[in-house]
TrEMBL record:
Keywords: DNA recombination, DNA-binding. PANTHER family: PHAGE INTEGRASE-RELATED, PROPHAGE INTEGRASE INTD-RELATED. Residues 163-333 form the Tyr recombinase domain. Residues 57-142 form the Core-binding (CB) domain. This is Site-specific integrase. InterPro entries: CB (IPR044068), DNA_brk_join_enz (IPR011010), Integrase-like_cat_sf (IPR013762), Integrase_catalytic (IPR002104), Integrase_recombinase_N (IPR010998), SAM-like_dom (IPR025269), Tyrosine_recombinase_XerCD (IPR050090). The keyword DNA-binding applies. It comes from the Bacteria. The lineage of its organism: Bacteria, Bacteria division CPR3. Belongs to the 'phage' integrase family. One of its GO terms (biological process) is DNA recombination. PROSITE patterns: CB, TYR_RECOMBINASE. One of its GO terms (molecular function) is DNA binding.
């Protein structure tokens, strides 16, 4: 509760908030002090009941605030995806003639309508990604006291069959490497380390410890790892031999034909190479899948695979568990009775 008192001709308001006593000078009007007391008591009661007042910006306004927050915490490519996904929802609001909708005015029914409209244009999995972005935006809005509830949490996502990771068979690996057309060091490093594309193109000579035979993956001032974590990957003598043959004219290990750090066009170059030799559904990320899949198929335990791959959650690694059909049997066989 709040109370008022007079001292030296001035009225004061006193109340407790956050475990401490707050005192404020109101002035020489008792009437004004009583009004301030009632207002504070209402505000404290609302907070106690979980009715704390929140800002209620428009979606368009808060979208910019949210993107500003995400920009400093994710990879540039991830930020671009967040920007695109929120833009789709803004376009949807514009199409309905309600571009200035406030966060509180967006209901789960409206989100469901958006879901149904988007499914006509893109795959279900893409719609799910867009819904996840909206859900994250609202969770952030709740933390910022700009929303009281998350309408996206009441919407059912599309269910789909989980797609198994595409990886190369041994014969495909041999075919790819023997026809690598100058990409051999890049492809071989992918296959021997399981690096993500951004990790490989940002790899520097200082990250390779030739003496200890390790590659260190860690964030830099101008680049951040996907999870923000640092990990070390052991490397073989064969890979060391390949790396030692590369030019050291730059801080970066892998350079394109112009002597510059590889860009994201590396994806298309690898795809073209794979298509030219008859390897279908081939992406740069499939090389990472290949590294992980063959580790699992050759009996490496999933916890070790998780560490080598740099997965932040074992659930991601479990996507490959089906490749080791005997792993549950081996676990049971270890019982001492």
């Amino acid at each position: 509760m709040a109370s008022i008192y007079k001292r030296g001709g001035v009225w004061y308001l006193s109340y407790r908030a956050g475990g401490r006593r707050v005192r404020k000078s109101i002035g020489n009007s008792k009437k004004l002090a009583i009004l301030a007391q009632k207002e504070v008591e209402v505000r404290l009661a609302k907070k106690k009941l979980g009715w704390e007042e929140v800002r209620d910006p428009t979606f368009l306004e808060f979208k910019e605030e949210y993107l500003g927050y995400r920009k400093g915490n994710v990879q540039p490519t991830t930020y671009v995806r967040y920007k695109q996904n929120t833009r789709h929802f803004v376009d949807f609001l514009n199409g309905r003639g309600s571009p200035s909708s406030k966060l509180s005015q967006i209901s789960f029914q409206l989100i469901e309508e958006y879901k149904q409209e988007r499914r006509k244009a893109v795959k279900h999995s893409t719609v799910n990604v867009e819904l996840k972005v909206l859900r994250a935006l609202y969770n952030f809005a709740i933390q910022c006291k700009c929303a009281r509830e998350n309408p996206v949490s009441k919407v059912d996502f599309f269910r789909g069959v989980e797609k198994k990771p595409r990886f190369l068979q041994k014969e495909e690996i041999e075919n790819l490497l023997s026809n690598s057309n100058g990409l051999y060091p890049v492809l071989y490093t992918f296959l021997k380390t399981g690096l993500r594309k951004s990790e490989l193109i940002n790899l520097r000579w200082e990250d390779i410890d030739f003496e200890r035979k390790y590659i260190r993956v860690e964030s830099k001032e101008d680049w951040r790892t996907k999870t923000g974590n640092t990990r070390e990957i052991p490397i073989t003598d064969d890979l060391i031999g390949v790396l030692n043959k590369l030019s050291k004219t730059s801080d970066y290990v892998f350079l394109n034909s112009k002597g510059r750090k590889y860009g994201f066009h590396l994806t298309e170059r690898v795809k073209r190479l794979a298509r030219s030799i008859g390897i279908s559904d081939m992406t740069v990320h499939a090389l990472r899948h290949t590294f992980i899949s063959h580790l699992v198929m050759n009996g490496v335990d999933l916890v070790s695979v998780k560490e080598l791959a740099g997965h932040s959650d074992i659930k991601t690694t479990m996507r490959y568990a089906h490749l080791a059909p005997g792993h549950l049997r081996k676990s049971i066989d270890k019982l001492p009775y």
